[in-house]
Amino acid sequence: MWNNSSLFFLPFLTTLALIWSSCLSKEKNADTMLLGEWHATWNGSGEVSDEMEEALTMDGKISFFADGTAIIEAYGYKGCAFTCDTLTTHINWKLDNQVLRFLENDDAFGLPYTIEKINSQSIELALIDDIRLSLTK
I want to staple 58 with a disulfide (CB 3.0 to 4.6 A). Which of 14, 82, 101, 125 is the partner? Predict the structure, then answer.
């Protein structure tokens, strides 16, 4: 039943299983790392005058919950490029590889923010090439 080739494949399969479970735990860690309340800063980019530079920044907060929902509060102001008022949105979120998606109920794609950096205290995200979202605990 056991021959030399079986003895070779057993360690190989064990190593493969360990690598696979390690990848799963990293994905799960990123999911759980997101949970909780984060201070949010949205920054836009583009060619603007110095006085418009301030209009491309907006603060807020995002709370991520384990059930896949989030509450986003955006603190707009007069002259802000994003919004001129405070907005509160209840939305779904999903983590796919290196992309954090904010999704409406019937939306399969949502707003895809690419994760540029993530750790337990800060997250750097990019939407397309001109909007950055920085999250800090």
Answer: 82
What would the pLDDT profile of 77-89 be if each residue is shown by its tens digit?
888 888 888 999 9
User: Which residue range is the domain that position 40 belongs to?
Assistant: 35-136
Alpha-carbon span 89 to 99, nearest angstrom: 20
Q: Which element (helix H / strand E) includes 26?
A: helix 4-34
Regarding whether 42 and 30 lie in a shared domain, the answer is no
pLDDT mean over 87-104: 92
Q: How far apart are CA 83 and CA 34, in angstroms?
A: 25
Please give the model's pTM, rounded to 2 decimal places.
Answer: 0.73
Give the residue with greater pLDDT, 87 vs 2.
Answer: 87
133: left (phi over 0), alpha (psi -120 to 50) or beta: beta
Residues 65 and 132 in one domain: yes
Is 72 in the same domain as 93? yes
Of 132, 128, 133, residue with least CA distance to 112 = 128
